[in-house]
Amino acid sequence: MKIINKNVFLKILCILAIVSCANIPKGAKAVKPFDKARYLGKWYEIARMDFRFERNLNNVTANYSLNNNGSIKVVNRGFNYVTKQWKQAEGRAKFVKDPNEAMLKVSFFVPFYSGYNVLAIDDQYKYALVAGKNLDYLWLLSRETTMPEDVKEDYLKKARKIGYDTSVLIWTEHEIK
Fold first, then answer.
1. Out of 17, 34, 150, 160, which could bridge 102 as a Cys pair, Cβ 3.0 to 4.6 Å?
2. 13 within domain boundaries
């Protein structure tokens, strides 16, 4: 009986891992060409869709660096203004297809991955619009704690065109802690 249960468990785990692989919202297109080296480094979250892993967080940053195996190390950090504590999560990202296309899958709980898709980025790699696997996940990122109004409006327009309800975005506050 234990062997059967173990086999069933392994099959379910495999199915969940496959199902959780990266996706991109219908109508969205990942940036291509994409320069991974220029994307690495620190990004500040300007806005996000609310979800439980970032609930009550301000001062949110994402740091991307290369792992020895070629994957991307992801360190997300934010200050929980309710508990007055810093929260940090470390994961890894991999390209889904071509490393020249900004369609990645990210995992904070291996073997489960979710979509991470850069939908827009400026020529200097200072501002980015990032989508998750569906219309529940969206981020506006900047190399600084602010984003110019014209860039913000352009990215919001692109997000709305795909189907995002940008009226529910949470605008991240950044202050020295």
1. 34
2. no
117 belongs to a structural domain? yes
- What does the alpha-carbon distance between residue 171 and residue 8 come to, in Å, rounded to a whole number? 43
> What CATH number corresponds to the domain at position 38?
2.40.128.20
Q: Is 157 part of a structural domain of the chain?
A: yes
In a domain, 80, yes or no: yes
Strand partners, 57: 80
- What is the per-residue pLDDT across 17-62, written as a single tens digit (0 to 9) for each? 444 455 899 999 999 999 999 999 999 999 999 988 899 999 999 9
Count CB-CB contacts under 10 A for residue 161: 10
pLDDT tens by residue, 101-154: 999 999 998 888 999 999 999 999 999 999 999 999 999 999 999 999 999 999
